[in-house]
Batch of 4 targets.
Target 1
Amino acid sequence: MNKIVERLQNGIIKENPTFVLMLGMCPTLAVTTSAINGVGMGLSTTVVLVMSNMLISMLRNIIPDRVRVPAFIVVVASFVTIIQFLVQGFLPSLYSALGIYIPLIVVNCIILGRAESYASKNPVVPSIFDGLGMGLGFTLGLTLIGIVREVIGAGQIFGFQILPLADAAAEKAGYTPVTIFVLAPGAFFVLAVLVAVMNVLRKKAEEKGRPLPAAQGCLAGDCASCNMGSCTGKSAAVNEVSGDTAEKKE
């Protein structure tokens, strides 16, 4: 039970993909023009994360090491296709709003990163909750950004008008939407502010003696502690090729 809680807490708070690890920025900036879009994209990614982590963990001792990345992509792509068809069939308006970003879940670095660094090395149940925690953290990040952008840019939350709009023709006072926040620049503004808030919370946690763990491995440029093996694998391959070339020259 402690392992499950730790996995959930890790994905939602300690290593939140949006505010801490800064992963998946393409859909984060593109689809969060409204809160409902953020929820839809986040939950779609969560389902793919949970299912792909589960299957990859089940097959971790069967998939050959040399083809693990292509195998992971095939697994992820299969679940993404299923989610795409379900959203297209049952939520066509959401499908139209998210557009190309649903199939692009296949190459989302959050999913491939968790598959490589955690699911391929751990049992099924912890891997499922690792995917669930990361997915919920991603959903939380997208929803918060979408809410802020929607409120400031349209005076709405989840499509409901909460701030009465000004009407110049009727000389009615009200809220004038800042439309830049529902455009591309607004995504950068809101993300920057929310990340700054997260950094303040991180600093306060450190002052209280409860620091949040920093990102490790390739993300932080620390290949020595990288668990994914991609850096060391590349270095070994380069050394091997160099060695073979040197032998041939001799």
Note: The CA atoms of residues 27 and 100 lie 10 Å apart.
Target 2
Amino acid sequence: MARHKRYDAVEEEKTSLDISSLIDVTFLLLIYFLVTSAIQVKETDLGMKLPAAMPSDKQPDIEPMFIKIDASGIIYAGTGNSQMVLDSDPNIRSLPMLAQQLDMYASAARSANKSPLVQLWADGGATTQRVIDVINALAVVKIESVTFTDLVD
């Protein structure tokens, strides 16, 4: 009878992937994107005084400027017969004509030692971005008192 020799199976080395350098690269990329990203300050904190839930009995000491945004994104200033179209292209977000009107109104109010006040009416079909564009234009001119209204003449 022949003796069977037992051979121990050669242990195969377990292959492993050293990922320590990949973790370093991941953290470096994370730091790079955190440092190079910029927060848009103009839309993070505008510091506007929005109206309270309850209407005030006190009349404002200045005639407010009325701004209307219709469903197609056209922006109007004024009410009644004095209403005029300012910015009619909804693709232009800088609103140059509105900014000019707001600047004149704010300058006149401040020269009379009064705080400028704006009433804003937005149609239900108007895009939220268009309303934000108007609010950004108010922030550029530093108009802080804004009232949203549902009264339209």
Note: The first helix runs from residue 20 to 36.
Target 3
Amino acid sequence: MISIRHQPNTNILETTAVGTLEQADYDRMLPEARKLIAQYGKVRWYFEMEDFDGWTAGTAWRDLKFDVQHLTDFEKIAVVGKKNWMDWATTLMKPFTTAEVKHFDLEEQAAARSWIAA
């Protein structure tokens, strides 16, 4: 499941993933990301993973296609979560974006939000 928030009057998209991400999660998230890209050109993404189990196979493919289509549309990506997921997710993202990608421990939420906003 994913929760999606947009900070008004900013190019910052915040998502929190819990459990396994499925097609329905992407049906909600991708239109919001595309709307912000259209509005601001570049988006900053705060991606928090809490008790995160990963993606279903079809959803992982959909994520990869979105990343390739929007290779240059993200300015910064803060990956927030447990150390093992952060390292994996950050490494996985880097070839598919020109964004600055940085990972933070789950306890560093405030620092991650400050970094993404700066």
Note: Residues 2-117 form a domain with the Rossmann fold fold (CATH 3.40.50).
Target 4
Amino acid sequence: MPEDISAIAVTADENMKKAIGHLETELTKIRAGKANPQMIDGIMVDYYGSSMSISQVANVSVMDARTLSIQPWEKNMLQPIEKAILAANIGITPQNDGNLVRLFLPPLTEERRKDLVKRCHTEAEQSRIAIRNIRRDAIEQIKKMEKNGLSKDVAKDAENNVQQITDKYISTIEKHLTAKEKEIMSV
């Protein structure tokens, strides 16, 4: 039976890693005043009837600290890319010059920085909830095994192990949040 318990811990660890990966992805989408091609990763554009991300239909590059350029591989994609960026409501108005779309990032105001930090806290809280749910599921599995004959000592050790894994990932969330908050609030 102990290998079943270690499998529960390994599964919980893998799922928590995925939750952290999701948090990292979401935090990179939140702009911190610097141009970053990952800001537009989630924006989908209509490409001949199918929905694709902008990076799949265009070359996205950083021109300078506050400017992103989007060079579509086909000129007729300029308008759909521009519409997709406007529809995504990321707070940036695209500028189309006939060859490429430019995104000029305005300097962040103090109020906007605070809103972005709130958004970071929301994402972090979502990740904490996901990790706690994974912990709860793992502990429920251990308790079921305990009802089916697993000794209380082994069950308690397994629960402690799951809790240690949980604590490790919760502290990782805090580190990511602190780093992103510092990045956003630095002028």
Note: The CA atoms of residues 69 and 102 lie 5 Å apart.
